[in-house]
């Protein structure tokens, strides 16, 4: 099984032909997982948009959530922020 940062590192930036990892929008040390094996997995992802006033920050957060939803098999809660 891949680590949690591996799941999100290949997501492409909406405005650039590069991944979020290549642009340093998402970095492994800014992904935290509290995996409660009984019921819910809590995931926190801090990301840094390419510019402070990025109008697509919400879209980036939604892309992260959608990607995690496609690979996680149990209930989870995600908190994305800058």
Q: How would you describe this protein?
A:
The protein is an alpha+beta fold and 82 residues long. The protein has a single domain, classed as GMP Synthetase, Chain A, domain 3, CATH 3.30.300. It contains 2 helices and 3 strands. A 3-stranded mixed β-sheet has the order 1-2-3. Strand 2, helix 2 and strand 3 form a beta-alpha-beta unit. It is elongated and about 40 Å long. The mean pLDDT is 80.
Helix-strand pattern: HEEHE
Note poorly predicted spans.
none
Question: In DSSP terms, counting alpha (H) and pi (I) runs of 4 or more, how many helices?
Answer: 2
Strand content: 25-35%
Helix content: 10-25%
Structural class based on helices, strands and sheet pairing? alpha+beta
> N- to C-terminal separation?
27 Å
- What count of structural domains? 1
Major sheet: arrangement of strands: 1-2-3
Question: Quick check: average pLDDT?
Answer: 80
What integer value in Å does the Rg equal? Answer: 12 Å
Give the number of DSSP strands.
Answer: 3
CATH class: Alpha Beta
- Considering the protein shown, what is the CATH homologous superfamily? Fe-S cluster assembly (FSCA)
Biggest beta sheet attributes: 3 strands, mixed
Large-scale geometry: elongated
Key traits:
single chain; 82 residues; GMP Synthetase, Chain A, domain 3; elongated; alpha+beta; 24% helix; three-stranded mixed β-sheet
